[in-house]
Amino acid sequence: MENAHTKASLFSSAGLSEELLNKLYSFAELPAEEGKKLWELILEQFDDLLVKILLLAAIVSFILALFEEHDDQTSAVTAFVEPFVILLILIANATVGVWQERNAESAIEALKEYEPEMAKVIRSGKHGVQMIRANELVPGDIVEVSVGDKIPADLRLMKIYSTTLRIDQSILTGESVSVIKHTDVVPDPRAVNQDKKNCLFSGTNVASGKARGIVFGTGLATEIGKIRKEMAETETDRTPLQQKLDEFGEQLSKVISIICVAVWAINIGHFNDPAHGGSWIKGAIYYFKIAVALAVAAIPEGLPAVITTCLALGTRRMAKKNAIVRSLPSVETLGCTSVICSDKTGTLTTNQMSVSKMFTAYSTSGDDIQFTEFTVTGSTYEPSGQVYHNGRQVNCASGDYETLTEMATICSMCNDSAVDFNETKRVYEKVGEATETALVVLVEKMNVYNTNKSGLSPRDLGNVCNRVIQQKWQKEFTLEFSRDRKSMSAYCIPSSGGSAAKMFVKGAPEGVLSRCTHIRVNGQKVPLTAKMTQRIVDQCIQYGTGRDTLRCLALGTIDNPPSPQGLDLEDSSKFIRYEKDITFVGVVGMLDPPRSEVIDSIRECRHAGIRVIMITGDNKNTAEAIGRRIGLFTEDEDFTGKSFTGREFDDLPPEQQSDACRRAKLFARVEPTHKSKIVEFLQSHGEITAMTGDGVNDAPALKKAEIGIAMGSGTAVAKSASEMVLADDNFATIVSAVEEGRAIYNNMKQFIRYLISSNIGEVVSIFLVAALGIPEALIPVQLLWVNLVTDGLPATALGFNPPDLDIMDRPPRSASESLISKWLFFRYLAVGTYVGVATVGASMWWFLLYEDGPQISYYQLTHWMRCEIEPENFTDLDCAVFEDTHPNAMALSVLVTIEMANAMNSLSENQSLLVMPPWTNVWLMSSIALSMSLHFIILYVDILATIFQITPLSWAEWMAVLKISFPVIVLDEILKFIARNYIDGEQDSKSTEDAKFKRLFLLRAIFSVVCLTLLWISYFCWILIPYVPQFMHAIGRGPRVSNNPLYSVFRSVEL
């Protein structure tokens, strides 16, 4: 693009003619992305196997309720409660899903923020500059830009009308400082955007200067347009949690379908029972209703709501740590993050330039020169820090170091920036260029005039020392920075008028030193020789290439500047003539320092098995130096194969690129395409990747990564494309969020375990009822109440379980790790089976064994539907007893009480309640109390008892409920003991190799299991032995209870 305007067949002053404009080009802008229609989004929410089964169950229940004959109005209303509640849940879930989808689409629309609305264009046949809409620009148009303008298209610079042209292109390239542009040819055809100094990019801003350029890219052909296209083509994958829940739902759906069909099939012989009016169809419908009830019982309807609540609670805790989560499922994904790809500027570093070292001349001897080196503390714009020499604090106002006063004066006067205190954020911020702001802060730290700072406000503290210097000197004018001389200077006169004017100069060491004739040594002006100059250059090289890779600025003065009347301030090419005979004063070295907490966070990531990769647009040497300082690299570690530039990465074949992503710790000088490619390679290796970014250029990679993390100070596009926003732009916050994600996953496993074992219990109870042929122990409306309300509260409270102390000492779990392992499934099955047996057992206890109950026989209970047609087997028995609501109340009360005990079991996956007692989670205890209170309300409030078809229980019945429920704690303690010691427990590798130890280990395991099992059996015997005579009578093999002497003995023992 050496002569871009001639290639477009136009003159730089004329612009495109209307004829050429209409003939060659059409208008271009970023096209609007056609989003999904509302009805498509709604249908997508129901594209889930569990949801489809629930929806089918609701429709079937509604149809059955609609055509079923009802005895009264109350029963008619009750019949419709179940389908109504299920539909309500599904609609609520669909609403949340649609809302989240709509928010996700805002990422692309946010790009419109960076589309300039208007442009200043020069066209043939028009007088001067005209304003047109930016979307009407075409390639070949000549555009004029000036300070404050937003670049309307991708431009090739033709002419710069100001001394310098600075562009803030941080939204596109991530560069923290504005970039100086020029019109020279960039010969490298593969230059990255950061190196295209002769181009302006659409959406970036003019920080200073005025220029004209020719349009070479509009719409999707611009750099920002390419990002827009890449974002639109990036598909959002489901999170690991969503994938696991999908797999779990598929497995559960298959099991439910098999059990439902089995329950319906094993009762085919009962379809013609007289209880169904002798109609095979009515019998089939009756057992079909039971199968539907089984499906409702098996599906944890409350699970989506509990997961959402748990994730929302996690987001609140993260927000307190400055991590704002935009996508709820990503909270859990953080827990399995294995690679963090972090930007350098502002995340690993403070993004606040700070002077850390400086030197002046101490003495000279011939051509030899000795330096006095100083170190400066403080790594932000806060004007607090100290100056040290050889480990001792220096009083810069003492007069021992005269040159420091002159350095402070140069830093303050040859400067157009300042520090401001943000009252809202309570932090100091830069006003102007970052490098100049660092010099302003250095002056405050040096305090060369011993200014009294006591009693000053934070805002005054930011510039008090600079104001003292600026009161002593008056700036007349500034010779702005230019590329040819690599320096700037300020012409100043003393306010008192007591001494001559001076020019204070600062710039690149090589540029300033080439025009220096003297050097300041302890206040004296000494001639500067070539060898001295080389010593200063060598010292600057050492600063620039050492461990810190400092950016050096040389400071100097012109003691006898030319008269202002003889200076041509309009022609910047003459400035180099005026800046001569400079006296070298010193050098300051600055850097964007690492955040103080990053080193510990990197170490914590290493302990947690998380790999950290730095990805930055800065140059490689600077990035490597920062990498050493933060512990990403050790002091002596070789960078070979672990540090790459974007160009070096591109030059590798695909196989080596993939291998590089396995080993690399640093990628420097990268472009957006590099970030996306790195994420793809990491994902192909099975890594769960968290990617940070703040600019528009980062958006595609943020969207592609499993966890996109935007900076709070970043662009709206980056935030919209991310799952999490860091309010403080701090890498340590990411590590805290990962820890919180791991804790949330552990808690989710606990409440899923709690809910699933409860649902298995409900399935077992319904299956036993159908298999034994006894009256319904639980009806659908009761199951819905338990699943949504009674279980939901403790399950939500389990999300407050405190994290394990060693949670960040474990490696990240695999994304393919099953949500439910074989051992966990066995535990669910064992606990769930007991829940089901106990629930049905409570109902049967009331019929067979309860003193105040009917005390019927086992045959009568299992053949209850023949009561009216076989009176000879049901003598002295009113068939209405089988419609009594006491058994339902017993079953429901046992189910609720067991599940409250099971909630306490779920405090920890393996820790005993003796080690982690229930009161460690006060929210859980409160939720258990609330759930039991709600159960008492529906039990003892008449209208609710009627709806739920239950009745109040007596004291004796409640005692039976507690005795039946308590063993679930003993059972789970046995299972925890086994898991803790023999399943998940880690044994010493050397000990396990010893055969003798293995035998002892096995014997101890068997002995422990046997003892705990005997303990459980003993408890059962204590409960059940008093009822043995009654049960023997119930099954028709023993005398009546009143005539059985054993009963009296056992009863007295029990009391």
UniProtKB/TrEMBL annotation:
Locate the Cation-transporting P-type ATPase N-terminal domain: which residues? 29-61
Query: P-type ATPase A domain spans which residues?
Result: 114-231
Which principal EC class is assigned to this enzyme?
Answer: translocase
**Where are its TM segments located?**
49-67, 79-99, 252-272, 284-313, 751-774, 825-849, 922-948, 1000-1025
Instruction: Reply yes or no: does the keyword DNA-binding apply.
Output: no
The main place the protein resides is: membrane
What does the record give under GO molecular function?
A: ATP binding; ATP hydrolysis activity; P-type calcium transporter activity
* Compartments in which it is found: Membrane; Sarcoplasmic reticulum membrane
Q: Which GO terms describe its cellular component?
A: sarcoplasmic reticulum membrane
EC numbers on record? 7.2.2.10
| CDD domains linked | P-type_ATPase_SERCA (cd02083)
Cation-transporting P-type ATPase C-terminal domain sequence ranges = 775-978
Lineage top rank: taxon:
Eukaryota
So what does this thing catalyse? Ca(2+)(in) + ATP + H2O = Ca(2+)(out) + ADP + phosphate + H(+)
Membrane disposition: Multi-pass membrane protein
- List the SUPFAM superfamilies: Calcium ATPase, transduction domain A, Calcium ATPase, transmembrane domain M, HAD-like, Metal cation-transporting ATPase, ATP-binding domain N
Keyword list (alphabetical) reads: ATP-binding, Calcium, Calcium transport, Ion transport, Magnesium, Membrane, Nucleotide-binding, Phosphoprotein, Sarcoplasmic reticulum, Translocase, Transmembrane, Transmembrane helix, Transport
Keyword DNA repair assigned: no
Give the protein's function. Answer: Catalyzes the hydrolysis of ATP coupled with the transport of calcium.
**Stated family:** Belongs to the cation transport ATPase (P-type) (TC 3.A.3) family.
UniProt-listed NCBIfam families: ATPase-IIA1_Ca (TIGR01116), ATPase_P-type (TIGR01494)
**Protein name as it appears in the record:** Calcium-transporting ATPase
Name its species: Dracunculus medinensis (Guinea worm)
